[in-house]
Each structure stands twice: as structure tokens, then as C-alpha cells.
Amino acid sequence: MSAPASLTELWVYLAASPLTALTMTLIAYQCGMWISARAGFSPLANPVLLAVLLLVGLLLVTGTDYRTYFEGAQFVHFLLGPATVALALPLYRQIERVRRSALAITVSLLTGGAVAAATAVAIGAFFGAGPDILASLAPKSVTAAVAMGIADKLGGLPSLTAVLVMITGVIGATLGPLLLTLLGVRDPASRGLAIGTAAHGIGTARALQMSDLEGAFAGLAMGLNALATALLLPLVWGWIF
User: Which residues cross the membrane (predicted)?
Assistant: First the structure.
């Protein structure tokens, strides 16, 4: 038997096991972390982006469709919930500062969430996007599970929103810290609020790499922005459209 035929049979055997997709996901992320560490944790070497690129390339090479992949990788998806809850720990350590800054945090979150949704919709409208695309764009800065529900309620396409959320998070985590530095924003709490509001969980993961304080405020912003957007965006959308 030739080597390519043997490899094909081996892959067919491995693809039948759900552990293969899970293993692929974990290895891809570890590869992304390894590359990111070798790059000095540069924002341009985002481990999530690298892992996604590695997985996409592997799925294309092996001809594996997303549904088959997700059947095995859904355990990682399940862990998103506990991981999100775990963000409460660094936030608890900063609870006194959060109390002192409650008004500033509230104003920042509402303003940031509104600007994120409005600019996405405005850019989409400028390029002639239809109503379903605009509704898919509006919640793109909110964590994926909430954003997909909002998009569905607004008449958008949840699957498209999931992709937009991922792209938004990767761009925000990659370029957000650099942009804030160029703008002279040095306070870790302010940086965390901005990153968490704009780039949800992926941005929060990046903020946690920089400092506990920045990560705590990013996690706070991610959660509250999801809540505020889920409550307010459908109301505002109904008034405008």
C-alpha cells in the first residue's frame, strides 16, 4: 500500500473519533501560544487567530466539514461558559475600584456599546448592505452566544454574526492595545473597559495577558456590554427600522 493511501486510511479512522477534533483544537491553540510566546506576545501574533488559521488549513487539507469538526470540538465550546464565569475572580479582587468608578464605568459601557453597534451599521449601510446583513452587524462586539440571539431577534443571520464576532474579537485583541497606546491611554482600568467593550472574550483574554487589573475590567465590560446590548439594542432597532 502506498504512503498516501495509508495516510488517507489513517485519517478516515481518526476522523471517526470525536477526540480527534478536540485534540486538533487543543494542539492548534498550543501552537498558537508557542508562536505568540516566541514573538514576545506581540499583539500581531494573537494565539486565537493563529489557532483558527491552523485549524482552517487542516480542515481544508483533510476535507473535513465544520459540522463534523464541531461534533468533536463541542467540549471546548461547553467550557466557554465556565471560563466566562471564572472571569469574576479577578473582578472580585478589584471590587472596591469598581464601586468607586461605577458612574464612569456605566457611561463608558453605554457609550462604547452604542458606538460599536452604530458604526458597524453605518459602514454596512454605506456599502449598501441589506437589512438582514445590518441586523447581523449590529451586535458584532458582543460575546458570540448573546450576539447570535440578538441577531436572530433583529432579523439577522446568526451564523454570519458568529463569524463577525470572531473577526471583531481577533482585530480588537490584535490592534486594540496598540491603538490605545498610540492614543495615550495608560490607565489599565480604562484600557480594559475599552478592550472588553469592543472585543468581548477574545479581547479579554488578551487583556488578562497584560495585567490582572486590565483583565478584570475587560471581563466586566464584556459581561455588562452583553447585558446592555441584549436589553437596549432590540428597543432602539425597533424605533429606527
Answer: 12-32, 44-63, 75-92, 104-127, 163-183, 216-240
pLDDT tens column, 111-150: 999 999 999 999 999 999 999 999 999 999 998 888 989 9
Q: Are 156 and 135 in contact (CB under 8 A)?
A: yes
**Whether 51 and 101 share a structural domain:** no
Domain assignment present for residue 70? The answer is no
Q: To which residue does cell 480594559 refer?
A: 192
Number of domains in the chain: 2
Look up residue 159 and give its amino acid: S
Helices marked H in 63-187 — which ranges? 66-78, 80-86, 88-93, 95-100, 102-126, 131-137, 144-154, 158-182
Structural domain of 45: 1-64
Q: Report yes or no: 195 and 203 within 8 Å, Cβ to Cβ.
A: yes
Does 110 lie in the same domain as 42? no
As to burial, measured by CB atoms within 10 angstroms (0-12 exposed, 13-18 middle, 19+ buried), residue 125 is middle
Evaluate whether residue 73 is within a structural domain.
no
Residues 6 or more apart whose Cβ sits within 8 Å of residue 206: 43, 46, 173, 174, 176, 177, 195, 199
What would the pLDDT profile of 26-48 be if each residue is shown by its tens digit? 899 999 889 988 888 777 788 88
Residues 95 and 162 grouped into a single domain: yes
